[in-house]
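ligand=S-adenosylmethionine
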Amino acid sequence: MRDLSDIRVIESTLKKYGFDFSKKLGQNFLTDGQVCPQMAELACDGADAVIEIGPGIGVLTQQLALRAGRVIAYELDSRLIPVLAETLENFDNIEIVHEDFLKVDLAALIGDQLAGMRVAVCANLPYYITSPIIMGILSSRAPITRGVFMVQKEAGERLCAAPGTRAAGAVTIAVQYYAAAREVFSVPRTSFVPAPRVDSEVIELVPHRTPPVAVPDEAAFFRVVGAAFSQRRKTAVNCLSGGLGISKDAALAALEHCGATGRTRAEALTLEQLAELTRVLNAGDAQEG
Ligand code: SAM
């Protein structure tokens, strides 16, 4: 098996195909031979099949294929399809699909092609679409065992922050609503070619069977979360009033009902407080209507 993390192998393979990296597609290929086996080990734990996003030249794909019965990898860049056909030619359990993963209906894919299998998702993500990919996977409620993702360090810290702490944002709350999230290990920028401007980290998301809090309606919950975090420097009362188009008195009354005050900022609110806030504001809506 060729070591696809070896910089000489990467350079000679890409030269052969006249390939140059696309910044627009978030192409930073891994050059550290330790990282992909670790990611694959974690992703394949308890999984029969793995879906990969953005295989590049196949460095992670081959490690996944060594550990899972089946791997389906989605690559958007047409120039990489013939490269992958060559680099992964010795594997008969890998299917490369030339498609934008953002357009894939993950639940339908698993139901149609991987029925009865335990399926994980794994990727060294193109950073320009980290949030849409992760939120798309989680909100689809596709039955996956776990997601193992390489993301920018700062994004990972935010995605995995504990609600109620400074690093928390709207995306933290959304992730925590759907999954248990943890940072697994850091990867320096020097482990990629070309080297990105920031360091990275691997995170693991394990979807909850049922959400940790009950909300009357998910759309209303995410509206409240979005409004509460809409302006980081402002208090939650101002954000909620502006974001939801309600009076400051109504926003303050709802916050006080949840044990917060007029000075509380959104990042200090717990998941339970945000759920309770949604219930109180929803009940207020029902009374007005
Ligand atoms: N897995 C390889 C590695 O670790 O070296 C490449 C990772 S690179 C950070 C991201 C990969 O995602 C690139 O191959 C890029 O072409 C691909 N990509 C970008 N946008 C995509 C999309 N919307 N759907 C599928 N693949 C995409």
